[in-house]
Specification:
Number of strands: 0
Keywords: Membrane, Transmembrane, Transmembrane helix
Protein name: Integral membrane regulator
Structural class: mainly alpha
Low-confidence stretches: 9-15, 229-239
InterPro entries: Pr6Pr-like (IPR049713)
Distance between the termini: 29 Å
Organism: Streptomyces finlayi
Strand content: under 5%
Largest sheet: none
Shape: globular
């Protein structure tokens, strides 16, 4: 017979940690995919220029969050903050959507499909723009407890894209006009489009990102808990990657 919990004693001190090996393995594999893509780009590209891309930065953040979450799931520790995990998911979703809808779309006006990628570059491109965004979406839908996101997070998450926009413009202004990849993305190329047009494009994208963040929070509040039945025996709580 299990003795009742004494007042002031946390449940975690009585109930043993509940490990989630399947979630841990999936997150570890997705972390490995992001790291592999980044390493390939660093090896075959310019290691000083590769980190300036939002794609690399968002995948690096996702790798850290997933690796950390995999460890916590494997050892039965509490989940990370949903503010952190939700932000990592939003940023990698932005990476995937911008790539497939704008950069890989010849009709967008900002296409970067000039040269076909082959070999390691093609593999890295798919890992960083397709595999990790889709994997993060599956992790969020199938392995994450719903109800942990708050609407105020949406505006807080946008601070990073806004800071990246400012960084890209300042960096481009400081580099020579002949510098390679002076602006990391065509829609940020002030030399080609001017500051006014670039600012309008950035505003439109910013509003789209904010709408996506709000949609993410709204969906989190109504989506069902699709985790395995045996993973629902722990006390109810709002959480991130649980």
């Amino acid at each position: 017979m299990i003795a009742p919990t004494s007042p002031g004693v946390p449940a975690a001190a009585v109930v043993p940690p509940r490990r989630r090996p399947y979630a841990a393995v999936f997150r570890a594999l997705l972390c490995a995919a992001a790291v592999t893509g980044i390493v390939i780009d660093m090896v075959v590209g310019d290691p000083l220029r590769v980190p300036i891309y939002f794609t690399i930065q968002s995948n690096a953040l996702l790798a850290v969050v997933l690796g950390w979450s995999a460890h916590r799931a494997w050892t039965g520790r509490p989940p990370l903050s949903p503010r952190l995990t939700g932000g990592a998911f939003l940023f990698i979703a932005i990476t995937g959507l911008v790539y497939h809808l704008i950069l890989a779309n010849d009709s967008s006006g900002f296409s970067m499909t000039g040269d076909a990628l082959t070999g390691p570059r093609a593999l890295s491109n798919q890992l960083l723009h397709t595999v990790t965004p889709l994997g993060a979406a599956l992790d969020w839908l199938l392995l994450t407890a719903p109800g942990g996101l708050l609407f105020r997070y949406a505006a807080q998450w946008l601070l990073y894209p806004a800071a990246y926009f400012a960084f890209a413009l300042i960096r481009g202004a400081l580099l020579s006009s002949t510098a390679e990849a002076r602006y990391p993305y065509p829609f940020l190329d002030v030399a080609a489009h001017g500051y006014a047009s670039t600012a309008v494009t950035a505003l439109v994208l910013g509003l789209a990102f904010y709408a996506l963040a709000l949609a993410l929070v709204a969906l989190d509040r109504v989506r069902p808990d699709l985790r395995r039945r045996e993973n629902r025996i722990s006390p109810e709580r709002a959480g991130g990657l649980k």
